[in-house]
Amino acid sequence: MVGKVISSTEYAANFKSNPNWRWGKGDAGDSPTDACQRIGRATLPIWRPRTDVKVPAGASVSAMGSCFARRIETVFQEEGFTVLSRPQELPELDQGVYESQLTNRFNTASMLLEFRRILEGPEVLPDDALLIPQKGGTFMDGHHHSVYSGTVEAIIGRRRRFYDDFQSVKQADAIVLTLGLTEAAFDPASGLYRNASPTPREVARKAPIEIHVLDFKQNMDNVEGIYRLIRTHCVRNPKIFLTVSPVPLGGTFQSEDVLVANAASKATLRTVAHEITSAYDDIIYFPSYEIATNVDQKTAWRADMRHVLHPVVQQIVAQFKAAHMGDPQQSAIAAE
Length: 336
Fold this sequence. Notes:
This protein is an alpha/beta fold. The protein has one domain: SGNH hydrolase (Rossmann fold). The chain is built from twelve helices and eleven strands. It is globular. It starts with 7 loop residues before the first helix and ends with a helix.
């Protein structure tokens, strides 16, 4: 079965319209538009077909996904967007720590659970589900990104507050989804996927938590489920932008090199992004992953090679603005 057929007329037109069609050959390549001439530099312009999918300046944006989504939020906020997934007054925790990563969701199963919880009702996540026991009778929340531990009552109150805060996603003009990783912690007791990986204490105690390496179909089904929820419950028919986080696995639970596990994870999620944006013309892929992983790596990342530096995120959002804000002619000029 052939996934996509490109006729001779169509690919001839593609060659004519696409200035960045070639990788290059030989030692240096023949043109500055060749990929071999563009990668490894401080900036990386990515050519994309002209699109009429536009987000008005100052629009309301909601982002969910890996921690890279938080970096995107920061720059959107600097650019004057209303970021619904980041409350104006961030909750303060103990010792001056602020919860700025409320919508971190590292796997698509946890993303789908949170969209169901927000858009269908909080009962999809029972109050006693996905609680991680800590010392002293306290708990962490396996569903939300946890820098916080407390009593069961405190966890439940926190979940309800987040539920109220993020009803705002229903009013979003644009939703950005960043796909993070494929290794997901599964809780057999509740039948639900956690956002949080097994803690060192759980690993030492051999807690009954499973790691599921979500395959292409599972991730595809999860993203399609999110899409249907957005289209059913979000009243402004928001633009949906999909990307893959360039941030690699912090570690793997599989018996293979983390470099190998990370390559498989990103390949799976990038394929999901390709297939779903091919299937649904109202989901737009944006190449954050390709920009961050092909610019000069020494200037793109902190020493751990996991945290993208702010100028690269600014570059990504600048290219997003060029493609999806303003009139098409000016957007094309800016992209060039």
